[in-house]
Write a structure and sequence with these properties.
With 439 residues, the chain is α/β, with parallel strands linked by helices. It contains 17 helices and 13 strands.
C-alpha cells in the first residue's frame, strides 16, 4: 500500500520550504541515492576487501584479487537497470545520458541508414530521441518519415504505423509517453507492426514513463530501450537496454571484419564485450554509478508491503504510486479548469476514472497556459509563493510547436507540472491559490 507520509520521509531535501512540482525536469533526489553517490566517490578507487575462503559459499564465484570497488559499482548499475526494465545485465549499455548513447548507436548503424532506407520518428518525442536519428539520416542518406500526433490531446495514433512501416524501414524510434502532457503511446502495438512488416530496429524511449510505470522490454516489443535516470531522481547516467545479446551484436557489428575472441572476467561472449566498447564511449563516473542501485531500491520500496526480488517489488510498487499520483493530477486539472483564463493543454472532455484525467491514458504530467500572461511571469509568481514548476520553451517540445502553443502563449512557452511520489494535495492547492492571485 502506498503511504505518502512515509515516502516523503525518504527525501531529506523537502525540508527546505519549497514545494517542488517539477519532477519532469529537476526531480528531488532520494536521500538513499545521494548517500550512495557520496559513498561511491569516496571508495570507488579502493580495492575490495579480500574474500576469505570460509566466507564464500560452495557455489559462490571467486572474486578476482585486487578488484577495485568501482568495478563493482559498474556491475551493480547494470543489474539494477536490468531489474528496472526486465532485461539482462549484459545487455545494458551505460553512458552519461541517453542522447549521447543514441548518437553513438545511430553512428554504428550507418550502413543500415544508407540511401533507400527509412527512419520513422514521432513528433511527441523529446529532442534527445529525435536529433540523433535526424543527424544520422542526413549524413548517411536515409529518408526520415514522421508519425503525427492528435493535436487536440497529444495522443500518438498507432494506426498510422501500418502505412509508415515497410520493407525499407531501418529504425522506428518512439517515446512511451510524452514528457509534458503525459499521453501514453501504445508501444506494444507499434512493436508488433514493426516486427511484422520490416526488419527494422525498434527503439523506445521510456524516460518519461519509468518513474510511474513498470517497464518490461519484452512486453513492449522493443529491441532497444533508451533511458535517462535524472528524471527518476537518480544520478546523471543514461542507458541503452537491448532485448538480447543477438540484437546488441547485430546492431554494432561490421561485415567483413575479423574480431579475435575476447572476454572479461565475467566470461561474457566476445560480441557483448565488443558491443560495449563500441557504444560506451562517454565514460561515466563510478561514483555516480553507485547511485543507480540505490535509485532502483528506492523505487522498489515505495510500497512497503511489496516482497520478493527487487524486480518483483518494482513491479508492485510503481502501480501503487501511479494510482496515487493520477488522483493528484486529476485534482490539479479540475482546479486549473475552474480558474478563468487558464487552459490545460491536451486535456479536453469528461473525466474517466481508470486514467485519472480524461479518456486518454496518461502519466501524471500536466501543462497549462494563462491567457494574456507570459509563462515566465506565471512561473515567477509561483516562485514568490514557494512553488516550483517548469517552463516549456519552443526547443523543448515538437508537439507544442505543432499545437501552436508558443504562438498562443505570447511565444513565451507554457508551464509544466511534473508530479512525484512526495507530492501531496496540499502542494496542488498551494499552486492553485498562487495562480488565482494573478487575477
Amino acid at each position: 500500500m502506498f503511504d505518502n507520509p512515509r515516502v516523503r520521509g525518504l527525501y531529506a531535501s523537502l525540508s527546505d520550504g519549497w514545494t517542488y512540482l517539477n519532477a519532469h525536469d529537476r526531480p528531488q533526489v532520494p536521500e538513499r541515492v545521494s548517500s550512495a553517490v557520496s559513498r561511491g566517490f569516496r571508495v570507488s578507487s579502493l580495492l575490495a576487501p579480500p574474500e576469505m575462503p570460509e566466507e564464500a559459499g560452495s557455489h559462490a564465484r571467486t572474486q578476482a584479487p585486487g578488484r577495485r570497488m568501482g568495478h563493482d559499482f559498474v556491475d551493480a548499475a547494470r543489474i539494477a537497470i536490468a531489474d528496472l526494465t526486465g532485461a539482462r545485465p549484459e545487455c545494458v549499455i551505460l553512458g552519461p545520458n541517453r542522447a549521447l548513447l543514441l548518437d553513438q548507436l545511430a553512428t554504428k548503424m550507418s550502413r543500415k541508414l544508407r540511401l533507400g532506407q527509412e527512419v520513422i520518428l514521432s513528433r511527441i518525442d523529446d529532442p534527445a530521441n529525435i536529433a540523433s536519428w535526424q543527424r544520422a539520416s542526413n549524413l548517411y542518406g536515409a529518408r526520415v518519415r514522421w508519425a503525427e500526433p492528435d493535436l487536440t490531446t497529444g495522443v500518438l495514433p498507432t494506426w498510422q504505423y501500418m502505412d509508415l512501416v515497410g520493407e525499407d524501414t531501418a529504425v522506428v524510434a518512439v517515446a512511451m509517453a510524452n514528457t509534458h502532457v503525459g499521453t501514453v503511446t501504445d508501444v506494444a502495438s507499434i512493436g508488433r507492426t514493426v516486427h511484422a512488416k520490416s526488419h527494422g530496429l525498434f527503439v523506445v524511449d521510456v524516460t518519461a514513463a519509468a518513474s510511474y510505470r513498470s517497464i518490461d522490454i519484452d512486453s513492449l516489443g522493443a529491441d532497444v530501450l533508451a533511458l535517462d535516470l535524472v528524471p527518476l531522481g537518480g544520478p546523471s547516467v543514461g542507458a541503452l537496454v537491448f532485448r538480447d545479446s543477438s540484437v546488441l551484436d547485430a546492431t554494432t557489428s561490421r561485415p567483413y571484419t575479423y574480431f579475435a575472441e575476447e572476454s572479461d572476467e565475467q566470461g561474457l561472449p566476445a560480441s557483448v564485450v565488443r558491443a560495449r566498447r563500441a557504444l560506451e564511449v562517454g565514460e561515466v563516473s563510478e561514483g555516480l554509478l553507485a547511485g543507480v542501485p540505490a535509485l532502483v531500491d528506492h523505487l522498489a520500496m515505495i510500497d512497503e508491503d511489496a516482497s520478493g526480488t527487487r524486480r518483483r517489488r518494482v513491479r508492485a510498487s510503481l502501480p501503487e504510486a501511479q494510482d496515487y499520483l493520477l488522483n493528484l493530477a486529476r485534482h490539479l486539472v479540475e482546479g486549473l479548469q475552474a480558474q478563468q483564463g487558464v487552459h490545460v493543454i491536451g486535456v479536453d472532455g469528461e473525466f474517466d476514472e481508470p486514467f485519472g484525467f480524461d479518456s486518454v491514458e496518461r502519466i501524471p504530467r500536466v501543462s497549462f497556459m494563462v491567457d494574456g500572461v507570459p509563462a515566465a511571469k506565471v512561473q515567477q509568481r509561483l516562485l514568490q509563493n514557494g512553488v516550483v514548476v517548469g517552463v516549456v520553451e519552443p526547443e523543448d517540445s515538437e508537439l507544442f510547436s505543432k499545437m501552436g502553443v508558443f504562438e498562443v502563449a505570447n511565444k513565451a512557452g507554457a508551464l509544466c507540472v511534473g508530479l512525484s511520489v512526495h507530492n501531496t494535495a496540499y502542494d496542488i492547492d498551494q499552486l492553485l491559490r498562487a495562480l488565482a492571485s494573478l487575477r
